[in-house]
Amino acid sequence: MRDPYLVLGLTRSASADDIKQAFRGLAKQYHPDLNPGRPDIEQKFKEVNAAYSLLSDPDKRARFDKGEIDASGAERPDRTFRRAWGAGAGSGRGGGFGAGFGTRGPGGGAKPGAGAGDDPFADDMFNDIFGATKRRYSSGGGAGVKAKGSDVNYSVSVSFADACLGAKRRLTLSTGKTIDVNIPPGTRDQTKLRLKGQGLAGLGGAGAGDAIVEVLVDNHPLFTRKDDDIHLDVPVTLQEAVLGAAIKVPTLDGQVAVKVPAGANSGTILRLKGKGIPNADRKVTGDLYVKLMVMLPEKPDAELTSFIERWSKGKDYDVRRKLGV
């Protein structure tokens, strides 16, 4: 696999937000649903997903930057070997493979001679190289190692409405298997869903790991979420504000009619009960709060200007009195 930074078009100094934004753009560009019958695009989509999976995890990213794991997230076993070899054979003390290691004596101490105690990495090297064999045969005379499979990270992008109302997204796993992921109603941005048993296979008959799916929710051009409620700014004309009117406003599931009370000001808030976001845990649905914004005509109107000039004479109309200015 290529360097994940190159896959996402980033440098190593990229922030977490830079990584997320780059992924969102590329995930939309290469999404298989938007490119049906294009195996090359599907492969690019998998590559982008894998790169984001590694770089969005702070621990994995740090280990990759240090060279401890490769671009696929796999360990680099040669690093431990090179470290021990360099500390022993390359140190100039004895010059041979075993020169810097010494032998163990009674009570766990190192016997003098043969470079005993010269190499602080000797025990680490033996443990790293031969530890797996020792664990395998230390109990049961050759019984196989059992270890649960590793979890695998994925991510999916959903629209604001789909996150609020619930949806399904098709996900291709690293194994090539395709599954439908259920996005529960009310899902928030960066929520992580755990799909049990959909990670890497275990060893020695142990269970598979899980798939951890991070849900990235797109912003909405009109709605703003606050807990389980939705807030929406709605422009109204001067005559609608002064005289009152029935207007239509958008909601998550279509338009509804609301009544603008006569004499409404900018900032007047209308509450539409139950038109917000479902909360499965509390078994309630939030509300939609509509803030009215009184708008003057886009082009100056001479008749309106003349009327206001006549109307304002002698009127006690000080809207900033409470500010003390």
UniProtKB/TrEMBL annotation:
SUPFAM superfamilies reported for this sequence: Chaperone J-domain (SSF46565), HSP40/DnaJ peptide-binding domain (SSF49493)
Protein name as it appears in the record: Molecular chaperone DnaJ
InterPro entries referenced in this protein's UniProt entry, alphabetically: DnaJ_C (IPR002939), DnaJ_domain (IPR001623), DnaJ_domain_CS (IPR018253), HSP40/DnaJ_pept-bd (IPR008971), J_dom_sf (IPR036869)
CDD domains: DnaJ (cd06257), DnaJ_C (cd10747)
GO molecular function: unfolded protein binding
Any single biological process term in GO: protein refolding
Record Pfam families: DnaJ, DnaJ_C
Gene3D superfamilies given in the database record: DnaJ domain, Urease metallochaperone UreE, N-terminal domain
Entry keyword annotation includes Cytoplasm: no
Recorded GO CC terms: cytoplasm
Keyword Chaperone: yes
Keywords annotated in UniProt: Chaperone
Source organism per UniProt: Niveispirillum cyanobacteriorum
